[in-house]
Amino acid sequence: MYKQGNVKRAIAFLLPAMLAAPALTQPVACHVAYAGATRVFVIEPTAHEGPARPLVEGASVIVEVANRLPPAPGAGVTVRTLGLQDGRPYLLHQASYLPGSPAIGPHGFTGLQVVREPSRGNELAYWCETAPNRP
User: Fold this and answer.
1) Chunked in runs of 10, what are the mean pLDDT values of the chain (135 residues)?
2) How far is CA 76 from CA 5, 7, 27, 81, in A?
């Protein structure tokens, strides 16, 4: 039989985790501005650990975003920006955010990030926010 105090402690411990769970599994919307156009990409959470599919593939820049579910290694959102030189990608910028990271201003949980490809001077800007769950 459970003691009343133990049940209350268990509820007090589990309730915040249950309330936070939807925030940990929500899709994210990333706003990417490159080559004079701004596009919004919605990235659904996934348990898959493989490489992220590129969102943008330009002549000199590639953008990848992964939205990994806990408890998988690398859980959270990872944004990678790669440059291309002689057809080979190289890392320009990488940022990782914990699952359920709060917004830090008008540009979501990432803030406004600007990446410049050094050899051509092309500039890419992005910011990501938690997107509403889809029905």
Assistant:
1) 51 38 72 93 86 83 92 87 91 93 91 92 93 69
2) 35, 31, 11, 17
Beta carbons within 8 Å of 57's beta carbon, 6+ residues apart:
none
pTM above 0.70, yes or no: yes
Q: Which residue has the tokens 């003691």?
A: 3
Q: Show Cβ contacts of residue 89 under 8 Å, excluding neighbours closer than 6 positions.
A: 62, 82, 83
Quote the CA–CA distance of 96 and 91 in Å, as a whole number.
Answer: 14
DSSP type of residue 131:
P
Tokens for 87, please give them.
């057809």
